[in-house]
């Protein structure tokens, strides 16, 4: 950490013939202000965590497409007169978030605070990591449900009720409550006040990256998994495809993403901790310089 700090700090070291008589740098690409250096340090710390959010959001992005495709092939009737619109099945995730967040904030956080002595009960990175776990569980359950739906499918329409999709959507709601909200709070708290807009933009970039990555993944699977006698996994008729394999693939990617996230999180230092470490390093340097000066004066 100290070596990385020193590496970035070199950009603010004034060398000979690098400033004008009025104090402005001759070349702003060679000499930066201390504020600019601190901003780059902040981005360097947060970027690995931000990258892990892209993979974890893929499962949320695909929810609006393939889950609806499943619902269209299932029994959506409630009673004899009402049929649930396939596109509205995702509201189960929103209902889960709406029920869970008040319970989490009002009951669970105070209980965890007494155990961990942490202001928020758990750290922001722990909250994001829990969301990643729920994302994996949601994809595993989605794969199992899709496997059963295909087995029960008859003449293009499954006899399974559409509410068999509820477990994966509930788990996805927990994923959003922990992961998405955790990422938003993480970016807002870890960026300096004057960089909050960049933090909000990074979260939007995470969603954009997840959408593009999901599109690339779907395109590759269309081309790679199709054979002469069998359609690809994600063919338009999901009864002939293997959507369950796609869900398992996302779960596998989620496992690798969790391992990467744990590696990055174990080496991350929160903003307050970084300032404390840098102050300690500065104090040590001041002591060393004073000792050298004292020795020089004594001789």
Topology:
Layout: H1 2-9, H2 34-62, H3 66-72, E1 77-78, E2 82-83, H4 91-116, H5 124-152, E3 153-154, E4 157-158, H6 166-190, H7 196-224, H8 243-267, H9 271-298
Antiparallel strand pairs: 1-2, 3-4
Helix pairs in contact: 2-5, 2-6, 2-7, 2-8, 4-6, 5-6, 5-8, 6-7
Kindly describe this structure.
- The chain is 69% helix and 3% strand.
- By secondary structure, the chain is an all-alpha fold.
- The protein folds into 2 domains: 1-38, no CATH class; 45-279, MFS general substrate transporter like domains (Growth Hormone, Chain: A, Up-down Bundle).
- The strands form 2 sheets. It has a two-stranded antiparallel sheet with strand order 1-2.
- A hairpin with a 2-residue loop joins β3 and β4 (157-158).
- The longest helix has 29 residues, at 34-62.
- The two termini are 36 Å apart.
- Residues 273-299 have low confidence and may be disordered.
- Keywords: Membrane, Transmembrane, Transmembrane helix.
- Its main location: membrane.
- Pfam families: PTR2 (PF00854).
- One of its GO terms (molecular function) is transmembrane transporter activity.
């Amino acid at each position: 950490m100290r070596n990385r700090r020193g590496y970035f700090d070199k950009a603010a070291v004034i060398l000979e013939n690098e400033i004008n008589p009025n104090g402005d740098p001759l070349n702003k690409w060679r000499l930066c202000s201390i504020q600019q250096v601190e901003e780059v340090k902040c981005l360097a710390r947060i970027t690995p965590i931000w990258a892990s959010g892209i993979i974890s959001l893929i499962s949320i992005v695909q929810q609006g497409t393939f889950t609806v495709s499943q619902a269209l092939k299932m029994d959506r009737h409630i009673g004899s007169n009402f049929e649930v619109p396939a596109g509205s099945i995702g509201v189960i995730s929103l209902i889960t978030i709406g029920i869970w967040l008040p319970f989490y904030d009002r009951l669970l956080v105070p209980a965890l605070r007494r155990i961990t002595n942490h202001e928020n009960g758990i750290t922001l990175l722990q909250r994001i990591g829990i969301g990643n776990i729920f994302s994996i569980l949601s994809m595993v359950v989605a794969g199992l449900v899709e496997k059963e739906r295909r087995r029960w499918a008859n003449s293009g329409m499954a006899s399974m009720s559409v509410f068999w999709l509820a477990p994966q959507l509930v788990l996805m709601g927990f994923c959003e409550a922990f992961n998405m909200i955790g990422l938003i709070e993480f970016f807002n708290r870890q960026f300096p006040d004057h960089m909050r807009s960049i933090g909000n933009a990074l979260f939007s970039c995470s969603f954009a990256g997840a959408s593009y990555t999901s599109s690339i993944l779907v395109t590759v699977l269309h081309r790679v998994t199709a054979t002469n006698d069998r359609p690809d996994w994600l063919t338009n008729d999901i009864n002939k495809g293997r959507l369950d394999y796609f869900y398992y693939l996302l779960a596998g990617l989620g496992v690798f993403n969790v391992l990467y996230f744990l590696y990055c999180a174990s080496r991350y230092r929160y903003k307050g901790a970084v300032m404390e470490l840098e102050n300690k390093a500065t104090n040590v340097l001041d002591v060393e310089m004073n000792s050298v000066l004292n020795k020089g004066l004594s001789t």
